[in-house]
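User: Hey, quick favor. My workstation is busy. Could you predict this chain's structure for me?
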Amino acid sequence: MLQYPNLEQALKYHFGYDRFRPGQRQIIEDALQNRDLLIVMPTGGGKSLCFQLPALIKKGLTVVVSPLIALMQDQVEGLRNNNIAATFLNSSLNPYKVRSREEAILSGKVRLLYVAPERLLSERFLPFLDLVKEKIGIAAFAIDEAHCVSEWGHDFRPEYRQMKSLRKRYPDVPTLALTATATDRVRADIIQQLGLKQPSIHIASFNRQNLYYEVRSKSKSAYAELLELVRESDGSAIIYCLTRKKVDELTFKLQNDKIAALSYHAGLTDEERSSNQTRFIRDDVRVMVATIAFGMGINKPDVRLVIHFDLPRNLESYYQESGRAGRDSEPSRCTLFFSFSDIKTIEWSIDQKTDPQEQLIAKQQLRQVIDYAQGTVCRRTIQLGYFGERFPGNCGNCDNCRYPKPMQDWTIEAMKFLSCVARCKERFGMLYIIDVLRGAKSQKIVQNEHDQLSTYGIGKDKSVDEWRMLGRSLLHQGLLEQTSDGYSVLKLNPLSWEVMRRQHTVSLAVPVAQKINWEEGSEKAVEAEILMQRLRSLRKQLADEQAVPPYVVFQDSTLKLMAQQQPTTITEFGKLSGVGSHKLSQYGDKFLTEIRAYRQEKGLLDPPQVNFTPSISLPSDTEIFTFQLHKQGLSVDEIAKKRNIRPTTIIRHLADLIEKNQSVDLNQLVSLEHQQKIWQVLEVLGDISLTPIREQLGESYNFDEIRLVRSKWRRENRK
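Assistant: No problem, here it is.
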């Protein structure tokens, strides 16, 4: 083994971090004892380090089995940027490059080799591996995305099953199996299928505390809400859809609304997919609209927003896909838009499966997703419970905990609904029953003479979505049944009759539109925003010069520390978390020059005199800068161009300045007529999110002017 005074010093030297994340140190100690390991650690928890650091300490080659070319290249780029000898062998290389890399491996110049399972087990590669073992030794096999070995996992790959042969061929080489998600059943399957010998099992908490989870109803304003979320977020965003058609439609809409977005799905050529993915990873575009084919192995740490515009197929996939947000532990948002029409789409695809057992599993998984979407308890309680982890609730970082939905008594409506099912002789599905309740004049209803029923038209006061919400809730509460023969016919049960006899009340959680700003409280980060933007620009420039993603140079968390602490010497810079020995020598002077230039300019800045109420927070540096330019008469676009930040950020500054009692000239920003109309709507609707306010006002009003007037309304109502 290579010797270091302690593991922390090895960590700092190679990766720049001062301390291990929870669980990492114990795993690395076990790996150094040559034990088999099963590591279940959520996305962003630091799984890769658990085999990368031991690979640098132990003698021999560590072979990393990875299912995707993108994942291999991404991890190897990151390691090389830390001056760590890593390489990959895959189908993207020509024979000459393969030979030269194999020679480097045999001469002991490589510590980590990334390879796909198909190549690893090929007739040509195994003899090469025998030679490696003889000449330099094999330190370990690290099987990444190990859930792929199990048919109970959400991404089963048959070729992973064959890797048990490694244990027979190399019985003394330890194996590390790593995955981000695995139920009890999948864990047992991984151990058995890979032939792990008395493995040390490490299961980290699945709780990603930095992620804010919310579910929204996919109403007619869903796209407007999505657009608002994208415009409000900093950093990159991924939007998932069920079909290629929806991906293309949404990408087109976003591009029309001046959002830098690209699509990713199986209908594109390999070249198009690869190009789009690279542009997203390198921050050339902010938004990727994709089917679920996108994201596995994408190690992009600064995704701040993941939106599921369609319902996911199962909770495990949802946890994995939403978990691509905030891998760097910074606050990020996961929004799911829930619609009953999505359920029909998924049910149709389930019905195409030929294996009845597969259909049964898929239907059960779909029900769990629906329960999650409609659940009124803490989102984390439902998610973590799925993986067998108990969570007490009250996480404070999901919509149900921050804004509990009020419960309403819908017993009368439930009686109407169930009575209509009974009068229609329990022979129809939910949509037909809703049509009868709402008094639809369809040919089918007239032919069946259901327009003569006493329940015909008695539900006109509720929308189709509201009746659907009630119908689904009755099913989930066991107050109504539904056939599973593909026709989904509604059937009554004994509890249904109890409701109709007023022996059982029915309560419904009614969704409330909410606007969450999860950046509140990060005052230091806001104050350092000007410097942060400059450091980001420098990082992008350096990354483009090397043709690598920006986060390979430094992650956002390290840039934030630079902006907050503003080191002025190479020694101070080297102490920052994320700055290792190689990056210090490679980038230290360049970033220090930028920080010093900023500090010099800041010293020349004469902040304007500001008035404030003691109970109201002071304007930050970045808001003061915007305020100065506004005072000079510059427009929002002119300020944004001068500061090289988005106009929506400038609007946010001005809105916050208004709330902080600063003399922002609202008349310069919003016409008097629009101010008066927005004010009137606010007086009626109160302090709610922007989307329903705009719905009330109409399309001639934009979100920016509503935000500004709302800030003044808030200030006046606080007095």
